[in-house]
Design a protein that fits this description.
Blueprint lengths: L1 E6 L2 E4 L4 E9 L6 E7 L6 E6 L5 E3 L7 E6 L4 E6 L8 E8 L10 E2 L3 E6 L1
């Protein structure tokens, strides 16, 4: 099993920045893809970004140019730098990990989530 613990959420004004972190523990050697999903109030959970062990990245269109995902394999930690935040970025952000190179719609492991609130 792999455990994921997120940190770094909070309240920020529109145009501001936040950095989320997700530390993995347990059988981390089995993990390839790590990334982030988010769920806004009343909406379904959606994919945000992912990074493979080899550092290949992929983003959903709405965050391209504003969010940057990175990874420290030695620390089994993934980061999400979020800049130029918009109220539409508000939601609970979930860290996810998979043994495959891509997260897919059903990652193998999930964190508990961290709240991000962007005020207008």
């Amino acid at each position: 099993q792999v455990q994921l613990v997120e940190s770094g959420g909070g309240l920020v004004q529109a145009g501001g920045s936040l950095r989320l972190s997700c530390a993995a523990s347990g059988r981390t050697f089995s993990v390839d893809a790590m990334g982030w999903f988010r769920q806004a109030p009343g909406k379904e959970r959606e994919f945000v970004a992912r990074i493979s062990r080899g550092a290949g990245t992929y983003y959903t269109d709405s965050v391209k140019g504003r969010f940057t995902i990175s990874r420290d394999n030695a620390r089994s930690t993934v980061y999400l730098q979020m800049n130029s935040l918009k109220p539409s970025d508000t939601g609970v952000y979930y860290c996810a990990a998979s043994e495959a190179i891509a997260l897919g719609s059903s990652p193998d492991f999930w964190g508990q989530g961290t709240q991000v609130t962007v005020s207008s």
